[in-house]
Amino acid sequence: MVIASEIQANNNNGKLQFSGEHAGMVFTGEFLEWHASIILPPEKHALITASFNVASAKTGDATYDETLPEEDWFYVEKYPKSTFVSDTIVQNGAGYQVRGTLELRGKRQKIAFVLEDKGDVLEANFIVDRLAFDIGRESDVSAEWVSKDIKMSLLIDKP
């Protein structure tokens, strides 16, 4: 199905989740405040822009939720917002190959992912290297306790 208009997505009509491992145990969390504007091909000016309030990250575990905002992890006092802006979006069967720049903790990294069109929803899964963004670098630079690769999952209900 081709989407020919702009989609406004946020925590009311979608989920932005993250997961990894800590000391061999899986943890999951969600950003509770985020917003994305999505214009997909065949529109001439296809673009995805997104921002998320890093302080809104919650796991449901009090220890993690208290630690995430700290300077070594998300450092929300200095970097309260993170962003993603696409460089290219190419239609690829029932989805879209997306490339762009993720900014987190003042660091910018190129990422790529497939945004799948599953009829009623758009879905994407990709990996973020937390050490590339200096997340947890002071307390766990070797990723001995917390996995280096953090899985990000995005699910958006289509209008």
From TrEMBL:
The species this protein was found in: Agaribacter marinus
Domain (Lipid/polyisoprenoid-binding YceI-like): residue spans on this chain: 6-157
Protein name: Lipid/polyisoprenoid-binding YceI-like domain-containing protein
Lineage, top ranks: Bacteria, Pseudomonadati, Pseudomonadota, Gammaproteobacteria, Alteromonadales
Gene3D superfamilies assigned to the protein according to its UniProt record, in alphabetical order: Lipid/polyisoprenoid-binding, YceI-like (2.40.128.110)
InterPro entries xrefs: Lipid/polyisoprenoid-bd_YceI, TTHA0802/YceI-like_sf
